[in-house]
Write a structure and sequence with these properties.
Number of domains: 2
CATH superfamily of the largest domain: Type I PLP-dependent aspartate aminotransferase-like (Major domain)
Strand order of the largest sheet: 2-8-7-6-5-3-4
Strand content: 15-25%
Bound molecules: pyridoxal-5'-phosphate
Oligomer: single chain
Number of strands: 13
Number of helices: 11
CATH topology of the largest domain: Aspartate Aminotransferase, domain 2
Structural class: alpha/beta
């Protein structure tokens, strides 16, 4: 006989990652086309080879401290949040989010999620037994968040608000004055700002963490640093939250190879600069070329959001797949309709191929 599982799990859909097909161009998961810094690879190989990194022992606390120091140097936040206590690390932003949701969401709690957006927020809230409530972004306009609607949806059960900025999949950032308004109007709600793509944007909201106690900012090594396979992310949090984060997070969830790699990645500023430069240049190339036959939206991330109507996103996805190119069919995003695709910015060669393929489809 099957043992009954928690009833909240019946409402949850499995996370479906971007497909990986041998030989195909994968532009579906917003990864870094340059890959990680060669210095990172060298550091991992040499550290293991020389025995500096001993894989038979649990990750060393000192190494984790070193990573936090390096992160503090990288983000360079103001005096109020400059301590290692303000940095919470985890197995990717996904891992950090998992811990955060467990801290704030119990049965009956609610979380507000402006959609369409990254689907993990809603899954984690449901897994924890809470209820996600969805606020539709200004659709077909600039995909901004209707602040009044968001605030009026808050009640005493609301514990978290998830804001992806730049937003996946629409690519836009939330203006600082709007997020400030949200933070100030609901001081008893934790405002989570997910800046997984911020390195490709013109501005960050990180400074808000130094001013308010109910906001935190998430960052990742998976995008601009090209380390998605190693799973490292972090949050900049107010000090009071660190105690709970340390209680709830799984010990050693970031492995020692990942810690070593993240430190080396932060030290190779040149590779980071190259990655950002490539994305900004190639994003412009994609937008300029695709907007000749589709509606393409401005993007501050390493992907572009494209309206392929009157075609259906699933048809375009299939047609591209047949040509060996994988993009994201956004119909899987709650509230994104059935005519949007998301294309990760690739190398010039990859982008030319996707433009050529889409041109054929649009005719
Ligand atoms: C908005 C957003 N946050 C977080 C993540 C996951 O980041 P990580 O690889 O650090 O878990 C993604 C991945 O695509 C994302 O789009």
């Amino acid at each position: 006989m099957r043992v009954p599982v928690r009833s909240s799990l019946e409402r949850i859909e499995e996370y479906k990652p971007g497909k990986l097909v041998k030989g195909a161009i994968k532009l579906s998961s917003n990864e870094n086309p340059l890959g990680p810094s060669p210095k990172v690879i060298r550091e991992i190989v040499e550290s293991i080879g020389e025995g500096k990194l001993n894989l038979s022992v649990y990750p060393w606390e000192r190494k984790e401290e070193e990573l936090k120091d390096e992160i503090l140097r990288y983000i360079g936040v103001g005096t109020a949040r400059k301590r290692k206590e303000n940095i919470a690390i985890g197995a990717g932003v996904d891992g950090v989010l998992d811990t955060l949701v467990q801290i704030f969401i119990a049965n009956d709690a609610e979380a507000l999620i402006p959609v369409p957006t990254f689907s993990l927020y809603e899954s984690l809230v449901k897994i924890a037994g809470g209820t996600p409530r969805y606020i539709k972004r200004k659709w077909g306009e600039d995909f901004s968040i209707p602040v009044e609607g968001l605030i009026s949806a808050c009640n005493e059960k609301t514990k978290m608000i998830f804001i992806s900025s730049p937003n996946n999949p629409t690519g836009n950032c939330i203006p600082e004055d709007e997020v400030r308004e949200i933070i100030e109007l609901v001081p008893e709600v934790m405002v989570v700002i997910d800046e997984a793509y911020v390195e490709f944007a013109d501005s960050s909201l990180l400074n808000l963490v130094t001013e308010y106690e109910n906001v935190l900012v998430l960052r990742t090594f998976s995008k601009a640093f090209g380390l998605a396979g190693l799973r490292v992310g972090f949050a900049v949090i107010p000090e009071w939250l660190a105690i709970y984060y340390n209680k709830v997070s799984i010990p050693f969830s970031v492995n020692s190879v990942a810690i070593t790699a993240a430190i080396a990645a932060l030290r190779d500023k040149e590779h980071l600069r190259r990655s950002i430069e490539l994305v900004k240049r190639e994003r412009q190339f994609l937008i300029e070329n695709l907007q000749r036959f589709f509606e393409v939206y401005p993007s501050e991330a390493n992907f572009v959001f494209v309206n392929v109507s009157p075609a259906k996103s699933s048809e375009v996805y299939d047609a591209l797949m047949k040509k060996g190119i994988i993009v994201r069919d956004c119909s899987s995003f709650r509230g994104a309709g059935d005519s949007f695709i998301r294309i990760t910015v690739g190398t010039r060669e990859q982008n030319e191929k996707v433009v050529g393929a889409l041109k054929g489809i649009s005719l």
